[in-house]
């Protein structure tokens, strides 16, 4: 769909309807990258489900056809707030489609709460290994193999020289 392909600099421009969702993540996930699977039908960000002009009174915005795959968004969470309150992240162009398709999609407003267990829509993305970390892992493995080979060689020599 290419939703994340472009980000407009004008965050308040005319666009599709904004949508909102609330997710819960464990405290240790803050500051890390997570994936959020977007529900097909989301709350209208203006009225939070109560019904308004933006959502034509429905209180909800449909993001895609039922046949389409769920959209999974990578999101980097900010550090956890000291006071434990939830944080709100605004993701441009991940909301509802504008009636005129030339306009940008609306924003997605994600409220992230701190809780014991994550909500089903969110998963923690594994830490990406940097090239230097990958090199280190490779060197570690190679030195372990070298150690094993040298030990066997040493035992073999002891054997040959009659010590074993
Ligand atoms: Zn509404």
What's the domain count?
2
- Main-sheet strand order equals 4-3-1-7-6
Uncertain residue ranges: 1-6
Return the average pLDDT rounded to an integer: 87
CATH H-tier superfamily of the largest domain:
Urease metallochaperone UreE, N-terminal domain
What percent of the residues sit in helical stretches (DSSP H or I)? 10-25%
Give the CATH topology of the largest domain. Answer: HSP40/DNAj peptide-binding domain
Q: Based on helices, strands and strand pairing, what is the structural class?
A: alpha+beta
Radius of gyration: 26 Å
Net shape: elongated
What's the arrangement of secondary structure elements?
Blueprint lengths: L18 E7 L7 E5 L3 E4 L15 E3 L9 E5 L10 E5 L16 E7 L7 E3 L6 H30 L4
Parallel strand pairs: 1-7
Antiparallel strand pairs: 1-3, 2-5, 2-8, 3-4, 6-7
Bound molecules: zinc ion.
How would you summarize this macromolecular structure in one to three sentences?
With 164 residues, the protein is an alpha+beta fold. Helix content is 18%, strand content 24%.
Task: Please describe what this structure looks like.
Mean pLDDT is 87; it is low at 1-6. The protein is built from 1 helix and 8 strands; from the N terminus they run ββββββββα. The chain is an alpha+beta fold and 164 residues long. The chain has a 5-stranded mixed sheet, with no helix packed on it. A 3-stranded antiparallel sheet has the order 5-2-8, with no helix packed on it. Zinc ion binds at residues 44, 46-47, 51-52, 54-55, 59. Zinc ion (ZN) is lined by residues 44, 46-47, 51-52, 54-55, 59.
């Amino acid at each position: 769909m290419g939703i994340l392909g472009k980000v407009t600099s004008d965050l308040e421009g005319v666009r599709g309807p904004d949508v909102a969702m609330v997710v819960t993540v464990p405290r240790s996930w803050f500051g890390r990258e997570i994936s959020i699977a977007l529900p097909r039908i989301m709350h209208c960000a203006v009225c939070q489900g109560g019904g308004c002009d933006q959502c034509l009174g429905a209180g909800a915005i449909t993001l895609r056809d039922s046949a389409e795959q769920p959209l999974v968004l990578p999101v980097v969470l900010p550090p956890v707030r000291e006071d434990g309150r939830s944080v709100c992240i605004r993701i441009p162009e991940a909301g509802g489609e504008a009636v005129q398709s030339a306009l940008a999609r609306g924003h997605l407003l994600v409220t992230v709460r701190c809780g014991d267990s994550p909500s089903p829509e969110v998963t923690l993305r594994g830490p990406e290994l940097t090239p230097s970390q990958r090199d280190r892992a490779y060197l570690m493995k190679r030195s372990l193999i070298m150690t094993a080979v040298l030990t066997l060689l040493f035992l073999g020599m002891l054997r040959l020289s009659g010590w074993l």
